[in-house]
Specification:
Three copies of one chain form a homotrimer.
Chain A lengths: L4 E10 L5 E4 L1 H11 L4 E7 L4 E6 L3 H14 L17 H9 L3 E7 L2 E2 L6 E6 L5 E10 L1
Antiparallel strand pairs in A: 1-8, 2-7, 3-5, 3-8, 4-7, 5-6
Chain lengths: 141, 141, 141
């Protein structure tokens, strides 16, 4: 039993397209290593309402499927009520972010995230290109 | 490095419609302030299977879009199997809650939640009106 | 204010069908009891990209509705791009896992998880039968 340590860094992500998927796994792992935390959790937190996170395989065909799947559920279209307020017509970006997660919590053991073989931390940009901030917070002992 | 502190309060929410969205951000922030935790996390936890949570913009047009979006994905309709068990025909309420989250974890820094400008903590009632309980748990140093 | 304790166990789950729902609540509760943590959190974490988690009612009719709902949103079909890479045609399994969660965080108070009456921790297998690993991590005081 030890004291609790908290450590955080903000990752800056410069996206280049309206919609794109970026793998943050290596950058998150570096923050965990820098934190000195051996056992605990890491929270990967999107500071935006039009960028969501998910944990799954980083395979280019699957990423196309994910984007087509989200386009089917929440089409990039005009005609949403919110578009009358926001001229960028980014309502679909909000809806898709709500379907995904604003935060992914991963266990940390022996100074590394615990993840299955195919689990990558993916940031899903839905309203780029933009400069995005992802807070990576490590908490533990 | 300090000891770990845990603190929790249960928010009571009296909803007035079958389906409605309520912003809990200010109430959550007050619990974080009352906890005395400077750095750590807050877990906002729905104690119900027909009320979900999400983190996104509290803008009235967008909230209409969110409800219409969920109605499209999980229509308020009769004919679900579970409706034969539960005469309130609230199967759609369960399905929508599953699409959203039972818990939102937010980082806490300097005694406040870390949130982007437009990120509000929204409780989505899908089977009101009811008295609802949301556990707000703060953990940190 | 006390020190932080972390404790984890890996649950092994042998699934028997391609798609099935298993209630992990009792097994998670046992890990929480074994941890000795009185107040804190438990993270229930899927180590797979084709098995998701959700927190909702364990009622057999509702579980049929959940599976039919997910079949409607992400049909078990051929023709996805990822299927050209993975001959098991499990793209739908990835998509459904992304809609659900890889991790459920629950508050722990007085040595038990805090859950509403109907809240069960459900592991949703989408690419079985397989041997699956679920990490249950308890963190607190």
């Amino acid at each position: 039993m030890h004291g609790v340590k908290t450590y955080s860094e903000t990752l800056v992500l410069n996206t280049r397209s309206r919609v794109e998927l970026n793998d943050l796994s290596d950058r998150v792992e570096k923050v965990v290593a820098a934190s000195g935390v051996r056992n605990g959790v890491v929270n990967v937190f999107s500071m935006h309402t039009t960028l969501g996170l998910y944990l799954n395989e980083n395979e280019s065909n699957l990423k196309r499927d994910v984007l087509e799947f989200l386009e089917r559920l929440a089409p990039e279209a005009r005609g949403y009520h919110h578009d009358t307020i926001d001229p960028t017509a980014n309502t679909f970006s909000h809806l898709r972010s709500i379907l995904l997660s604003p935060v992914i919590t991963l266990p940390v053991e022996n100074g590394k995230t615990v993840r299955g073989t195919w689990q990558s931390i993916i940031a899903a940009e839905f309203d780029g290109p933009r400069t995005r901030k992802i807070l990576v917070q490590v908490l533990g002992e």
